[in-house]
C-alpha cells in the first residue's frame, strides 16, 4: 500500500532540489558568463525616446553563446542579438570551455533526474530496500563534484581568442582583462553550493519520513500523513 508522507523537511528538500536544477540549467544556457568591455556609442546611436546618444553597451559571452548589438538598415536603430556563436560542440571557443560544458551538462542532468525523482518521494521512500533520499543525496553530491570541476576549468579558457576579443589583450587564463563576471557565473556557483546543501539535507528528509511519529500514523491505518 502506498503511503503519502509529507514532512516539512522532506518538502523543503524537494523544493530546493528543483530550484537548484533549474538554476544550474538557466545559468548554463545563459550568455551572461562574461561581461565584455564597454563598446562606445557611435554618432548614429540615437535613443528613440530621448533623442540623445545611447550609453555604451557591454556585450556578453557565455560558454557557447553571446549577446551583442547589431545595426539595422533602418534609421539609426540598434538591437541586441543573443544566440549561440558555436553551431556545434567543436566550435566552442576553448578546449577548457568544452570540458566545462561536459562537466556542467553531466551535473545538470543528474540534478534534473534527482529533481524529477524527488517529486515522487512523497509516495515512494525506498528502492530495493535503499532509502531514496540517501540515494538522491549521493547523486547530488556527485553532481556537485562535476559542477565544481566545470567551474574550475572555465576561467582557464579566458585566454582563448574569443574571450580576448571581448575582454581585451590583457585577458588570459584566470585573468579577466577588461571583462567582469556576469550573473550566470555567480548563479552557477551559488547553485553548486546549494547542491551540496541539498545532499546533506537529504539525510534530514530521510530521518523525518522514517520517524517514530510517522510509523505510528502508518500503524493507525492512515494513508496520508502530514507532519511538521
Structural commentary:
Its main location: membrane. One of its GO terms (biological process) is single fertilization. It is found in: Membrane. This is LHPL2 protein. The chain is an alpha+beta fold and about 230 residues long. Helix 1 (about 10-30) packs antiparallel against helix 2 (about 95-120) and helix 3 (about 130-155) runs antiparallel to helix 5. It has a single domain, classed as Butyryl-CoA Dehydrogenase, subunit A, domain 3 (Up-down Bundle). The protein has a 5-stranded antiparallel β-sheet with strand order 5-4-3-2-8. The protein has a two-stranded parallel ribbon with strand order 1-9. It has a two-stranded antiparallel ribbon with strand order 6-7. The protein starts with a strand and ends with a strand. A hairpin with a 3-residue loop joins strand 3 and strand 4. The protein contains 6 helices and 9 strands; from the N terminus they run E-H-E-E-E-E-H-E-E-H-H-E-H-H-E.
Amino acid at each position: 500500500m502506498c503511503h503519502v508522507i509529507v514532512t516539512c523537511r522532506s518538502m523543503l528538500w524537494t523544493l530546493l532540489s528543483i530550484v537548484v536544477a533549474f538554476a544550474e540549467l538557466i545559468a548554463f544556457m545563459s550568455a551572461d558568463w562574461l561581461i565584455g568591455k564597454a563598446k562606445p556609442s557611435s554618432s548614429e546611436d540615437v535613443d528613440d525616446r530621448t533623442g540623445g546618444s545611447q550609453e555604451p553597451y557591454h556585450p556578453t559571452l557565455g560558454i557557447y553563446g553571446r549577446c551583442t548589438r547589431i545595426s539595422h538598415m533602418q534609421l539609426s536603430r540598434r538591437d541586441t542579438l543573443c544566440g549561440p556563436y558555436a553551431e556545434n560542440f567543436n566550435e566552442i571557443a576553448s578546449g577548457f570551455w568544452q570540458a566545462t560544458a561536459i562537466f556542467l551538462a553531466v551535473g545538470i542532468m543528474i540534478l534534473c533526474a534527482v529533481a524529477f525523482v524527488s517529486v515522487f518521494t512523497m509516495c515512494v521512500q525506498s528502492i530495493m530496500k535503499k532509502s531514496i533520499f540517501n540515494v538522491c543525496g549521493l547523486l547530488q553530491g556527485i553532481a556537485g563534484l562535476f559542477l565544481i570541476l566545470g567551474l574550475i576549468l572555465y576561467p582557464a579558457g579566458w585566454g582563448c581568442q574569443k574571450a580576448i576579443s571581448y575582454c581585451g589583450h590583457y585577458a588570459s587564463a584566470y585573468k579577466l582583462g577588461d571583462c567582469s563576471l556576469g550573473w550566470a557565473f555567480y548563479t552557477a556557483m551559488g547553485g553548486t553550493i546549494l547542491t551540496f546543501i541539498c545532499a546533506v539535507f537529504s539525510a534530514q528528509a530521510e530521518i523525518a519520513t522514517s520517524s517514530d511519529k510517522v510509523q505510528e500514523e502508518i500503524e493507525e491505518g492512515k494513508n496520508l500523513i502530514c507532519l511538521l
